[in-house]
Design a protein that fits this description.
Blueprint: E1 6-11, H1 19-31, E2 34-41, H2 52-73, H3 75-79, E3 84-90, H4 94-105, E4 109-113, H5 119-122, H6 128-135, E5 140-143, E6 153-157, H7 169-185, E7 188-195, H8 198-203, H9 209-229, E8 237-241, H10 244-255, E9 259-263, H11 271-274, H12 277-281, E10 288-292
Parallel strand pairs: 1-2, 1-4, 2-3, 4-5, 6-7, 6-9, 7-8, 9-10
Antiparallel strand pairs: 5-10
Helix pairs in contact: 4-6
């Protein structure tokens, strides 16, 4: 059974060589989903034209050239039998227009290439991808380098330290999203919880190894029950100690994970600069990130 009905690809001039376009096309072909491609067209660098009518004429001419280009580079996808629609969208506010499109189209996935701003620029602005993670009303799949068109290993990163008995509806939502992608792509589904005891150890240097073991067991129990609920085999459950970013980064590289599915949360304080766990996972070039928000 198809897990997806409609996919939205957000792209720009990089379309012919876009990893996100490659993934979107493969996923649409595998699922039979309709694929809508929205190419964002931002005003080109140019000298300001005094006459507003001439300015509008220049914009219309530029857009017509872009639409012709878009039709040409997507012709092979249309000829392959995909349910494909395309549009070129003039925009001076990319985030606003992407969010409007997401609300109108209501895709199962919004797919886009990763674009990371230099660190210095992040001090003054929030990168578009980061804002999209925080505000998108639909799951966002940000695509980095990909080894194959469809993922072969999908990792659901959960946190069972909170919620009712450690199993919150948000954790279930993350696993359901990862499960849907894995089923559609015939990929392996892995589940990981990176638990960090460092804050507790630093707060009380007198804690004993017995206490640490008791806490570990208390955290493991809801994680195991959550994995049981979704039929995840023992060899694909990973309960690892360490900071989430470090654990996920090492695991992705060691196990050749293609996609990490995780929750997107609003960063606070210093997190706005350095990014929270999800946003910093975007820096891992070997994998892509699929994010869901709490209801």
């Amino acid at each position: 059974m198809s897990q997806y009905q409609r996919l939205l690809l957000i792209t720009d001039q990089h379309l012919p060589h876009s990893p996100a376009a490659r993934l979107a096309a493969a996923l649409a072909a595998a699922s039979g989903a309709a694929l809508h491609i929205t190419a964002l067209v931002e005003p080109p660098p140019r000298t300001h034209l005094i006459e507003s009518s001439l300015d509008e004429q220049a914009r219309l001419a530029y857009m017509e050239t872009y639409r012709t280009w878009l039709e040409g580079v997507t012709a092979s996808l249309r000829d392959s039998g995909l349910q494909l629609t395309t549009e070129a969208l003039w925009t001076t506010h990319p985030l606003r227009d992407i969010l409007i499109h997401a609300r109108e189209i209501k895709p199962d996935l919004l797919i886009k290439d990763v674009y990371l701003e230099p660190l210095l620029k992040r001090v003054f602005t929030t990168p578009l991808d980061w804002q999209l993670l925080q505000e998108s009303p639909v799951p966002v799949h940000l695509v980095n380098q990909i080894a194959s068109a469809l993922p072969r290993r999908v990792l659901a990163a959960v946190d069972t330290s909170t919620g009712e008995a450690g199993i919150s509806e948000f954790n279930r939502k993350i696993i359901r999203q990862a499960e849907a992608l894995a089923l559609q792509c015939d990929a392996e589904l892995h589940v990981l919880y990176a638990y960090d005891l460092a804050p507790a150890l630093m707060a009380d240097p007198c804690v004993t190894l017995v206490w640490v073991e008791e806490l570990r067991v208390a955290l493991l129990e809801p994680f195991a029950r959550l994995a049981d609920d979704y039929g995840v085999p023992a060899e694909r459950r990973h309960f690892l100690m360490g900071s989430p970013v470090g654990v996920i980064t090492d695991f992705v590289r060691d196990q050749a994970i293609d996609v990490v599915v995780m929750g997107s949360v609003q960063p606070k304080g210093l997190g706005k600069l350095i990014g929270d766990t999800t946003e910093r996972t975007l820096l891992i070039p070997e994998c892509s990130v699929l994010t869901v928000r709490p209801d």
